[in-house]
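Pilot study result, target chain (394 residues):
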Amino acid sequence: MNIRSVLEKMIAARASDLHLKAGTPPVVRVDGVLYTLDEPAPSSQELRDIGNQLLNEEQRLYFSTHSEIDFAFGVSGLARFRANIFMQRGTPALALRHVPVEVPTLEELGLPQVVRDLAYSPRGLILVTGRTGSGKSTTLAAMIDCINRTTTRNVITVEDPIEFLHRDRLSFIHQREVGLDTQSFHDGLRYVLRQDPDIILVGEIRNLETMSTALMAADTGHLVMSTLHTTDVVQSIQRIISFYPPHQHDEIRMSLAANLRAVISQRLIPRRDGAGRVPGAEVMVSTPTIREYILNPDKIPLIHNVVAEGVTQYGMQTFDQSVLALLREGVITEEEALRNCNNPNELGLKLKGISATSDRQWAPVDAVQGDTPAPGAAPGAVGSGRQPDWMSKT
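Predicted structure:
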């Protein structure tokens, strides 16, 4: 197998992922759908040879003892890829994700204006959440790139593996890879406070130790960004609390209320014109009411209602508000809107002109329908919103 030829076909097809398995032709994922490439099926030995080409000596030793490994590599003149090699049925298999050389802007991604504003937060914890493949790493990279182009900051990242490569512009960026530059996320974070950071990016929060260290860094006045594999704002808060034993829940709720700056949850939705996918984004920004609700376990499920009503004042939005805005802008189809929203029955009634008098979540979307978008506003943003007082730009 000519792996470069397969990667070139992957790029030409605008695929996000490539899957290689012995005895099966290569498979690519384009806009969430799997397709088979017109390439011969690789043998087990060919996949072993490809793995040996891509891995260094230390990585080969790790793979031989663990039977799976995460890493990243670049192909000269083509692109950069995040990869995972694993064993299945006694033979190696590869999953590769395309990482663009150039970091896309927040506007190109179609994210709401409030996400750009959040990138300039002076301190606190910002989480980008969503299922695997929902663009979390891309959103964080775009936020770091936005900071890098406009402000002077010392940014330190801890990633597994490093995906997007950042060049120093106005900011000074150190990128550390787990297994190469540090032993673990926890170790990387434990020492990062001695490295004079302004902004800390953690590729993923996977356990209690990493979560505790991230909250500690935010509590000491740093801006910390990271990701979680959760589907919405409320689940993200509940997941963080669930990391801890019950006797610590009150303490962690206090820490979250004090340090959580925002949660951005994403889902990628196919565009109506077939030109890729656009993110539907639920955005929660910390407010006095949000902080009060986080402190009360009975009120955490009600945060969704606060987000729905915080569009105009804080730039927040729910998934359903984002999806309805995308539908009215003609970016997605009604079928995709109903498939990707949280409450398809309510949205279906709304599209038929039926809504309960007590249901106020649609009012902000109705208010901006037909309005001229604010300069720089991105598709999917319910409204430009007023910039909260705590948001300060340098």
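One observation from the pilot: The chain has a mean pLDDT of 89. A full batch analysis is planned for the follow-on phase.
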